[in-house]
Amino acid sequence: MARRYFGTDGIRGLANTYPMTSEIALKVGMAAGKIFSNGGNYRHRVVIGKDTRLSGYMLEAALMSGFTSVGMDVFLLGPMPTPAVAMLTRSLRADLGVMISASHNPFDDNGIKLFDADGYKLSDDTELGIEKLISGDATDLLAPADAIGRATRVESAQERYIEFAKRTLPKDLRLEGLRIVVDCANGAGYKVAPEALWELGAEVVKIGVEPNGRNINDKCGSTAPDALVAKVREVRADIGIALDGDADRVVIVNEKGEMVDGDQLMAVIAKDWLDTGKLTGGGIVATVMSNLGLERYLKGLGLGLVRTPVGDRYVVEYMRKHGYNVGGEQSGHIVLSDFVTTGDGLVTALQILAVVVSTGKTVSEVTNRFEPLPQVLKNVRYAAGKPLEDSRVVKAIDAGKAKLGAAGRLVIRPSGTEPVIRVMAEGDDERLVSRVVGDIVEAVKAVAVA
């Protein structure tokens, strides 16, 4: 069965435009509610959180109506990070968790992410089952009048998540003496992240904490860190922390105003957890986009780097299957499975701060674990067809691999969300890397440029 609604990260689209409409959200609530309320002689429950987008009100109400109509009780969290929704789904013993968010996208997009009772994203089979019910007769899903669900707002949701995040640190570790700038992207973490850092003793400078429904990710947050860099330099902070719209990823800025990406963060945590005996799996799990410098650094520690396709769900699937507890993406979407089931920007930042405090070193000293190899990434938009199967493109790719040899890497992949071919190469010789990418890009343009 071909997918109509679900993509690689739930359902996503332009708000009030198919499929991101109240009608579809209502049907998602009914369909998912029906699947997750089968079996067991008890009141089935669902947790719903959202970020700060204007359309969140509309979608929240529609989902709530759908779930209650099939007999599920609904617990409303309000604006909360995606990882908080996953955590509270487990904590509240809910059958299902829902996050209304389009992550780092502009405000006029929105999305629906679903989590099972253990806080993990749904399997492909479950998503297809939901789609099948959405397309069927909705009246067959409705509960009797005396079994309609109730909706309750969880007033303690923020405090519960803050306490959870604080408990991921070693006992008695405090952040006194640290000046921290935190940019919450005017998104889901705008209350909980600054509060958690302050309660741990830090001096907190807040930006991106005035959401108005339209300014989420607007010139702020992890995808637009210039404001954070400027503020770190202005107030001479020890560290800058930038979250994205749903706070499941993080970018760090050191005390010099320099960016630190997810590869460096994973290197810091892997080494710390190796030294303290907490690291499992013999290494970490990352995607094909992680820098070769990270792989070499880990090899020097006797650790491996397993690469998966791009997407946190692939990272998490491999971690669960093979017993790894550190994984993530270069973008800052880090999964620490001892604590969380999905990426958590705040928890990741706290792990970095724990190393800073325990070593007494600056953030730049702590996070400069390896020298990244030159990495060039270019996107080519195409009109139609499958340009990667054209003989001229295949020939250019084979030539690029030969030029880079065993000391370099070449990754070419179509985007999962738009008609774009992503061409990435890395190696020790930056000019060679650029030339290889340029040759492949030109070959793709020659056969399929939009």
Task: Give a verbal description of the structure.
This protein has 450 residues and is of the alpha/beta class. The protein folds into 4 domains: 11-156, Alpha-D-Glucose-1,6-Bisphosphate, Chain A, domain 3, CATH 3.40.120; 175-247, Alpha-D-Glucose-1,6-Bisphosphate, Chain A, domain 3 (3-Layer(aba) Sandwich); 260-367, Alpha-D-Glucose-1,6-Bisphosphate, subunit A, domain 3 (Alpha-D-Glucose-1,6-Bisphosphate, Chain A, domain 3); 375-448, TATA-Binding Protein, CATH 3.30.310.50. The chain contains 14 helices and 18 strands. It has helices at 22-36, 56-69, 82-91, 124-134, 157-166, 192-199, 226-235, 262-275, 292-300, 312-322, 345-359, 363-367, 391-404, 430-448; strands spanning 11-14, 45-50, 73-79, 96-100, 109-115, 151-153, 179-183, 203-207, 239-243, 250-253, 259-260, 283-287, 304-308, 326-328, 334-336, 375-381, 409-414, 420-426. The chain has a 6-stranded mixed beta sheet with strand order 1-5-4-2-3-6, sandwiched between helices. A 5-stranded mixed beta sheet has the order 8-7-9-10-11, sandwiched between helices. Helix 1 (22-36) runs parallel beside helix 2 (56-69), helix 1 packs across helix 4 (124-134) and helix 5 (157-166) packs across helix 6. It starts with 10 loop residues before the first strand and ends with a helix. The mean pLDDT is 94.
